[in-house]
Amino acid sequence: MTTRKPAITRTTGHPADTIPDRPHTEPPKPSARGAGPERLTEQHNVRIRPSVKDRLGKAVDKLRYETGDRSISIASITDHAIDDYLRQRGC
Predict the structure, then answer these.
(1) Nearest by Cα to 80 from 63, 66, 14, 65
(2) Distances (CA, A) of 72 to 36, 40, 57, 77
(3) What is the reported pTM?
(4) What are the 10-residue block averages of pLDDT along the chain, 91 residues in total?
(5) Are 84 and 45 in contact (CB under 8 A)?
(6) Which DSSP string corresponds to 1-32?
(7) 64 C-beta neighbours (distance < 10 Å), count
(8) What is the pLDDT of residue 88?
(9) What count of other Cβ atoms lies within 10 Å of the Cβ of residue 21?
């Protein structure tokens, strides 16, 4: 006769019980306004022509490929374009 081990066994504890607690860290201090570049956090929904949207997408892909800069995005190009437009008009 062969002695078999049961297919289902009881565990003595939860697997996560062996993971140590996280070390206590200080929360990051808020940086002063104007320290470093301003982040793109505001949303501005507008309607544009489909052809312009296609050109914008292709421009992002082209610029990312040519420069290797992964921070280039539709949002960053739009932000720069609006900023340049307003500066040219003294706003």
Answers:
(1) 63
(2) 18, 12, 11, 7
(3) 0.55
(4) 81 79 74 69 89 95 93 93 95 90
(5) no
(6) ------SS---SS-GGGGSPPPPP-PPPPPPP
(7) 14
(8) 96
(9) 5
**DSSP letter assigned to residue 36:** S
* Per-domain residue ranges of the chain: 46-91
Q: Which of 69, 84, 76 minimizes the C-alpha distance to 41? A: 76
CA-CA distance, 75 to 79, in Å (whole number)? Answer: 6
pLDDT at 57: 95
Radius of gyration for the alpha carbons in the chain, expressed in angstroms and rounded? 27
Contacts 24+ apart (CB under 8 A), 78-86: 78/44, 79/40
- Sequence-distant (≥ 6) Cβ neighbours of residue 69 within 8 angstroms: 63
Q: How far apart are CA 73 and CA 67, in angstroms?
A: 13
